[in-house]
Prior knowledge:
Layout: H1 2-17, H2 21-34, H3 39-47, H4 52-57, H5 64-76, H6 80-90, H7 99-111, H8 115-128, H9 136-146, H10 149-162, H11 167-179, H12 183-196, H13 201-213, H14 217-230, H15 235-247, H16 251-264, H17 269-281, H18 285-298, H19 305-315, H20 319-331, H21 341-357, H22 361-368, H23 375-406, H24 414-422, H25 429-443, H26 449-472, E1 489-491, E2 494-496, H27 513-516, E3 517-520, E4 523-526, H28 527-531, E5 555-558, E6 561-564, E7 583-585, E8 588-590, H29 592-599, E9 617-618, E10 623-624, E11 645-647, E12 650-652, H30 657-671
Antiparallel strand pairs: 1-2, 3-4, 5-6, 7-8, 9-10, 11-12
Helix pairs in contact: 1-2, 2-3, 3-5, 5-6, 6-7, 7-8, 8-9, 9-11, 10-11, 11-12, 12-13, 13-14, 13-15, 14-15, 15-16, 16-17, 17-18, 18-19, 19-20, 20-21, 21-22, 21-23, 22-23, 25-26
Amino acid sequence: MKRLFACFQRYGKLYMRLNYKSNAEKYFIDAIRILPRCWPAWVYLVECQECPMNFMKLSLPDHWMKLFSFVNLYLKFLDGSSAKEMLDKFITPELANTPYVINQIATINVYARKFPVAIDEYRRLIAIEPNREEGMDRFSDCLFVMGLNVELSYLAIKWFYINVHSPVTCCILANYYSSMRQHEEALLWYTRAVKLDPNSCNAWTLLGHEGLELRNYISSSHAYSRALEIDPRDYRVWYSLGQFYDVLQCPAFASFYYGKAHTLKDDDGRMTIALGDVFLRQDDVEQAVHCLWKSHCIGDFDNSTLIRLGQCYEKANMINEAAEMYLKFLEREESPKNPSQLAVKNCHKFLSKYYFDKKDFQKAIEYAQPCLEINALREPTKRLLNEVNKLDNECDREYLKKNVYRADLSETSLLDFVENINDCGQANEEEIISELLAETLNKKKLTSTSFAVECSFWLVALNCTGDMAFSDQPCRICQKHFVEGETPVILGRYCFHEKCVRCEFCCNLIENPRENAQAIDEKVYCKSHIEKNEIGAKPSCPTCFKEFTVADKRLIKVFGITYHSHCVTCFDCKKSVPANKWQGYNQRALCQSCFDLVKSIPCVKCRKMLKDEEQNVVLQAGIICPDCFHCAECLTRLGLEEKFYQLNENVYCIKCDRAFRIAKYKFDRTRGGPNC
């Protein structure tokens, strides 16, 4: 009987190697009927299945191994929820502490993206069986995702000394190097992993990720295609291919692969988020809203779907719906998995503009204040707050007038009348008081003639004091008094000499200021800036971040950007450069020493500085001078128009073809190329 079982199992494995899964399935079923407790036969039988329903239709003996096989089957098809339900049916407290069951529970949590729970289970597994190799590659994936680099480095060192030639160890070491941003080393270890285990779909997928990090799109595409050949049911490969074409800006291909991933895993919100982003970039707002709303209903893992939905509604000009989405997102702002700070501040920017249009100035100011922390949003926010203050002052002014007109003036003394106006706290109180007194005299039928006479007296007094104040005021800029016969330029409440009037925005002198200047909030601006609505965005120096003022007379422009004369710095060494002594190169301001280094490039072989008039040779590794342009094997001088081979900084003539190929073979062996 045992010989017959071994015969069936060998035939099954042979047909598996030949990729005849239907024939292999028959032999494995016969082997299980002979010896139901043989676990490898159940494992091979699960590998032959193309669908979970086919396994249920098989006539198999009713054995407890069958339940474990169902868990293994569901995990093969990445159905963690069904695997957990099946495991809960027969698990007992005794079985729950066995290494195999702990590994299965951890794998289920990995597929459900519950990485903290999975890490705890793997730690429990290591405590029971420290040298267990199965599942350690998934453990390293969890540590990489959660950013636990210290524990990942300890795991990598441990398995490096236990078994460095195992594909699992190669994946652990690759994850460690990838977490340290050493993507070339990670690519080398993933290459070794797929050579040791060519049928590892996870290793091929991660190899594609590393190729994408290094912008090696050809090798990345090959790795993803190979993973797809091994397991076309793995939604992670389809999703990775969607990301690959998304990076290459091919939205049609990206949406196709994201759609295939969503078909295989319809309960994962990442697929619909990615599809929504692709449709949003294509301005297909209807499809984007449909995908993103579905992701929101499923449950997004980073709380960013509401922001994307708000952007969709914003593009469709559905302002109220967009504001609702942004408000819902800000309610979850305290969540530890927020998007970037700039995305949150963009929500505040939109809501401040929304409430500004609704004339709810208090909420507009409340949402605008956080935007001042971001440099990119500071100037637009200043303009908005400036407009809010203007409209708010106008509203207060109208409210004040209504309250004055409602008052019973016959029973109110003039002193109380003026004090009530002062309580409003306006900036130009004398102007407002005189205006309100004039309107009160013109529009109200005053029963008390004494009060009318008193109002007229105060109105004349206010105008007289205003004229006296102007005549006695010095120039606001130079603080010098006006000479007899000199006419001051009156802008707002201040007087200026005609040659002292400067725009607060551009700091330039204003010609003919009586016609071309205007005072707004006690500041003077050009009419051109007022017409362009730029008065709220005052420019600042990009080095010291201080706003330009009228007193800043020494300003300098470098490639269209204005600096203080003492704030110009070298782009490379960041040292201060004296005014008018900087050198321009490739739209960058450089000091003289850095400019000389850039202009004089050294030869990659002899390290001599190259001159512009020399006929230099450009290679992939750099530029070499004509003296070094000779064959590395036979030392023959090569002409500028002669064909040659190149390997790093060495060149070979056509006659030394064999020497070039040997050098290239050795180079590929040392770098982990295709020949190693």
